[in-house]
Known about the structure:
189 residues; alpha/beta; Rossmann fold; globular
Amino acid sequence: MNYLIVGLGNIGAEYANTRHNMGFMVLDAWAKASNTVFETSRYGSMAEVPFKGNRFILLKPSTYMNLSGKAVRYWMGQLKLPVEQLLVISDDLNIPFGTLRLRKNGSAGGHNGLANITELLGTQDYARLRVGIGNAFSRGGQIDFVLGELAPEEAAEMPEICSRAIEGIKAFAALGADRAMNIVNTRTK
């Protein structure tokens, strides 16, 4: 079975190590661990990772965060995948840094990338894996915090966070969303 795994982020070196690029970081770590490379394609960079008879198509949209739905809708159509075979990875400032939350559906929760995907797919019934970035910013500082680079202690935790996220995605495919949620959402940092 094929799965489209979309990591949200912004393209460009200036965004590479920012909190808003958690989705890109997880997919980059997975590609590296799988000895695969991303290739430039329409609306993004893509790589493929086989796993237990499944094929994960990793997509890092090149449309910038707020227009991510354009890439997701295009590739869902090209691959002829139902929404049940889509999983989107995003950052979330409403949960503590490094905490993972897997959901089968839900609101965008103020995340513009998720909102655009929901709008262009016409449904919020798609799985998402939220990676907590915390909310250590003062009033009015949300944009600078989200687009700010990871602190050294946060960067040091990223390999373990990415590893847990990848295992959660594999569980989503192998066990189904409900069982994967029980595994992913009960584990904390």
